Amino acid sequence: MASNVKAFYLAAGVVLALTAPASAVDVKLMTGPQGGVWVPLGGQLKDIWEKAVPGLAVQSLPGAGIANVRAIEEDKAEIGFGNSISTVDALAGNEPFKKPHANICNIATFYPQFYQLAVPADSGINSVQDLKGKGVTTQPRGNTGELITAQLLKVNGLSYNDVKMSFVSYTDSVTQMQDGHAVAFGLGTAIPAASIMDLASARPIKLLDLSGSLDGMKKLNPGYTLVTVPKGTYPKQDGDVKVIGYATHIVASCKLPEDMVYAMTKAVAANTSSLGAVHKDMKALTAKAMSEDIGVPFHPGAAKFYKEAGISVKAH
What we know:
Layout: H1 2-12, E1 25-30, H2 38-52, E2 56-61, H3 65-73, E3 79-83, H4 84-92, E4 104-120, E5 135-138, H5 144-155, E6 164-167, H6 170-178, E7 184-189, H7 194-202, E8 205-207, H8 214-220, E9 225-229, E10 241-253, H9 258-270, H10 272-278, H11 287-290, H12 300-308
Parallel strand pairs: 1-2, 1-3, 5-6, 5-7
Antiparallel strand pairs: 3-10, 4-7, 4-8, 4-10, 9-10
């Protein structure tokens, strides 16, 4: 598909000269699970990019951080949301990826992600170790949140075999927490997470402090950081909670035309207000923040935009 995109622009003789081409170019944008913020953000990006790039038609599809990167590498999609930690693993060929991925280019870093582990407030569970033998729910395999859940258990001396695991959607995880089939819900997303808000509206919950797991997590992937869920983010949350953090970013096939990705990157920087209406963390996004080095080389088209903004980045 990516080669078809490039061939179209060359054949049209415009290479995105911002004149209407003879026919539409279709690209697939992989977002996230239903109920997460990537889906509505993907819809907003579709609108922004189709206006910025004449003839471009973006098909926004549900996905997941790990699966999105695989899809781009295998030419099944052209653009996707990613998580810094799993994308770095993809480039290196670390598990759960089977080989180094060479067709993954960064476009822009967006905002921090928060891995949150919610438990009933009256459960008596105060640490990851307390989960032994109990029901834990997280996203389907292939989601970044699922990978982090496995790693978090590992650094605390546990595995999936030591708990009663369920790999389901956000909505089903909330249901399992409500009916008592699970006592812990782990997910990686923005804050406040709509699914945790839904859960908190039905019963009092609390987030586990994960600061004690950071050193072990960083040994598995140096991209992990410690981030804070401020008090009041969720109902009856009366204090800040430290959780595991990483970054959301947009990646693309390195095969996409430079001028196309340049126009897309520029359009993101020019439309932070509309993106912020979907997710508040996007309102304060700047070219400098978009160009943050998270260990994934930038697409030459994105690098061209950052260079014009006076920012030097590592390009693919």
